[in-house]
Amino acid sequence: MTSNDPAERPVHALLTDGTTVRIRSAETGDHAAVQRLYEEMSPENLRRRFFSVGRASARQAADRCCAPAAPGRRALLAEAAGRIIAVAEYETVEPGSADVGLAVADGHHHQGLGTLLLEHLVSAARDAGITVFTADALAENREVLTVFADLGLHVTRRYEGPELHCTIPLDQDETYLSAVEARGSTADVASLEPLLRPASVAVVGVGRKPGSVGRAILRNLRTGGFTRQLFAVNPHGASFMGVRAHPSVGSLPQVPDLAVLAVPAAAVPDAAEECGKCGVRALVVVSAGLDAAQAQSLLSSCRAYGMRLVGPNCLGIANTDRMLSLDATFAAHHPRPGSAGVAVQSGGVGIALLDGLARLGIGVSSFVSLGDKYDVSGNDLLQWWECDNATDLALLHLESFGNPRAFSRTARRVTRRLPVLTVDAGRTSQGRRAAASHTAAAATLTMTRQALFTQAGITATRTIDELLATAALFHAQPLPAGDRVAVVTNAGGAGVLAADACAEAGLNLPELPSAVMDDLRAVLPEGAAPGNPVDATAAVTEERLSACVDRLMGYGGVDAVLVVLVPTAVAAATGDVLVRSLTRSPARRDHTLAAVSLGQDVSVTLLPTSDDGAVPSYADPQSAARALSLAVARSRWLARPPGHVPTLDGIETEAARALVETFLAGRPEGGWLEPRDCAALLACYGIPQLPWAWADSEDDAVLAAERLKGPDGLTVLKARWPGLLHKSDQRALHLDLRGDSQVRAAYRDFETRFAGLLTGVIVQPLADRGTELFAGVVQDEVFGPLILFGLGGTATEVLADQAARLAPLTDLDVHDLITAPRCAPLLFGQGGNGPVDLEGLEQLLLRLSRMACDLPQLAEADFNPVLATPGAITTIDVRVRLLPRAPHDPYLRRLR
Q1: Residue 447 burial by Cβ neighbours in a 10 Å radius (0-12, 13-18, 19+)
Q2: How far apart, in Å, are the Cα atoms of 78 and each of 21, 81, 104, 192?
Q3: How far is CA 320 from CA 337, 356, 477, in A?
Q4: Dihedral over Cα of 684, 685, 686, 688: its sign
Q5: Cα(215)–Cα(436) distance, rounded to whole angstroms?
Q6: SS3 338
Q7: Neighbours of 846 (CB within 10 A)
């Protein structure tokens, strides 16, 4: 894993006003620049920083800042336009505690610079084992005191004459992460202003041929009614569609906010460099086929000059705000104005979504084709839509994730305000390979993606058609309060199909009370069957169908009504007329209503209602039922509290880190921990284990068995050698051993069969009877730690009855993990054995999550089996594999 610590390599991050700074560690060669920073500060700021105005303080501060690297101290610099504009540093005063200092250049205050630099210093300090910052400041220095207070960390102040002594514990709790997140959102949205609300746009690479991409983009900007300054760049001059072309960006009469590059791949680096030098603030690069050197040059120019970048290899961007009318795409049609935000990586998928939304009559607020996603990502767009006052529905098609844990935090917040829908692309190994070859994206595990979407409240669909079908329901109808559905049909067979579709989608068709059925009989034709499904018969008229639906809508025992109609020649009204009759009563907007019109020529359409709403009409019951089930899932997610990561006692993080470091010092390539180290690691996190002993001789095994045997006198012997993973497959364990002779025989059997391999045996008492479970963690290179839980023992791989969630786990995540597997009823007492120790099971999963988050070197861990009984949760077998990986703070603000 690549480290993002500025000590390893510089990073770029956004300030409050959306501008970019470069953050890196101070070096000895920075002395003159750092001294200049202090010397150019006003006397008042110097006094506040050093408690005096003597210029000698500047040299001394530069000496300290730029001294050779040493344990216990760190200095970080922020640069802009090649100048050092801020310094943050700490120096250890005692183990675990460091004194912190901060200086920001005059002219760069109130941009969030000091806070940003301190965030990076806090992250570096945590990685170095520092838990507390201390700082001394003049009581009148309100600016620096405000910076400390606004960090989101708890600050304790103590007056010492005219000074304040501040103590700042470096706990990364929810308060701190929320503060970082809020600052990041403000900066992110500000940085996207020149991209999505530019005051001027230049299209670079407007070709002479009518079919050129640059010319198509210019045409869409012109015909789309872009209301602001528009420029064309072509080295040969001329005029295109009434827009005069200039030979270069530097020759434009004013610097554009946004430049769209539609030039050959080889020309992209020079074009981006020119844009940056001229002061362009954002780029959209539609060009494809950049090699590694060209790609690096493009991104380096964007970072050096503070330009946000969409692409390369993209369709372009659009913002339908009527005061802007920006269509900087080469799509065949302009997006219809509306309230759906759309972000895609694939241009083809983008066109399909725009066409599908247009057919439904759902307009777009903004559209961004992310392409190869070098910079601007789905995370950026979620934050934009959260604040743009125009978007109430978000649609994403993402083939890769740059920072999934930051994306998850953003999505958890945004999905509380507006629905976020996605297509789960790359669910199969073939799909993942296609995604990787198409966008150079790393492959991701299906289970990991699904865990991300579930925890973040994102509605994940399987196809573009399903995405559009669900978007139609979310756009047009209120969410159902529950999963109870009433089906109304004019054909009994169609009602059966709909009932099956609802049941398969996890929806419930409750029986209707006799009073409700009597009420329905009064308005339906003779011969109608008012059960659920309600068979209104082929003779039903518009008026009778409408009355039936009205009564069901008024009944509190259902949450949604699904009307399934087929065209017949019996009634005066055709199927189409019956469907349209559903749109005439605006009162139905209080409940979820959907229709199925069998034989409909499109998969889904929206039928406008008399109150400017709409009713979605589907071509088949499965599409309608699936959309309704996803709406129910969103409703339930919104009804749940956000959840929190519980505080755990008895955690010895530093001891665990020391154990890991010691192991990797002796095994730099990594490997599996020995049983003693596994036991020690679990003890650091308070994870209960079955007693065990190590024996490397027959006599030792006998002595251990005598000491550890349970009340029944039985023990277990497990063979051990490096690389042994599945003991059952190798017949490397003996159960139910009683007495010295059986223990000796078992040990000799291992010696004979595993000669040359065996390094010893593990001796344990025979465990009590209980439910065998599995708990584990896999450290994904991109997504971070994934916690798995399910049925254990030899059935783990055969039945694959597992659920997964990304760490850190909240209390609700743990509840979901325990209840999701098919074996869950056994844990709650089904079968007559009584519920297992559910609190102990929750603690085991929370402590495993904490261990995975604390130790990035934890590549994988398997607890199998974990024995669950009414009285206890106990791990029986443990395997842990470590790899040399640097700490990575997923919530630290930085650009990719």
Answers
A1: middle
A2: 6, 10, 9, 21
A3: 5, 17, 23
A4: negative
A5: 30
A6: strand
A7: 23
Summarize the chain as % helix, strand, coil (round to 5). Answer: 40, 25, 35
* Sequence-ordered list of residues with C-beta below 8 angstroms from that of 437, at least 6 positions apart, any chain: none
Tokens 């039985």 -> residue: 714
Average pLDDT score, the chain: 90
8 Å CB contact between 435 and 443: yes
Q: In this predicted structure, what is the pLDDT of residue 573?
A: 47
Q: Where are the beta strands (DSSP E) in 2-131?
A: 11-14, 20-25, 73-80, 83-94, 97-104
- Say if CB 880 and CB 673 are below 8 A apart: yes
- Select from 45, 17, 46, 35 the least CA-distant residue to 83: 35
Question: Are 735 and 763 contacting, i.e. CB atoms less than 8 angstroms apart?
Answer: no
Report the DSSP beta bridge partners of residue 561: 486, 593
Q: What is the mean pLDDT of residues 491-496?
A: 94
With 0.70 as the threshold, say if the pTM is over it: yes
Taking CB atoms within 8 Å and a gap of at least 24, the contacts of 794-797 are 794/728, 796/864
- Closest by alpha carbon to 328, among 209, 439, 204? 204
Contact 322, 337 (CB under 8 A): yes
Q: What is the pLDDT of residues 323-353, one digit of tens each?
A: 999 999 999 999 999 999 999 999 999 999 9
E strand or H helix that includes residue 809:
none
Token reading at 833? 């054995």
Q: Which amino acid is at 285?
A: V
Tell me the CA end-to-end span of the chain in Å, nearest whole number.
14
DSSP code for 870: S
3-state SS class at 102: strand
- CA–CA distance, 862 with 824 (Å, rounded to integer): 19
Mean pLDDT, residues 626-647 taken together: 95
| The two three-digit tokens of residue 516, written as one number | 């409700």
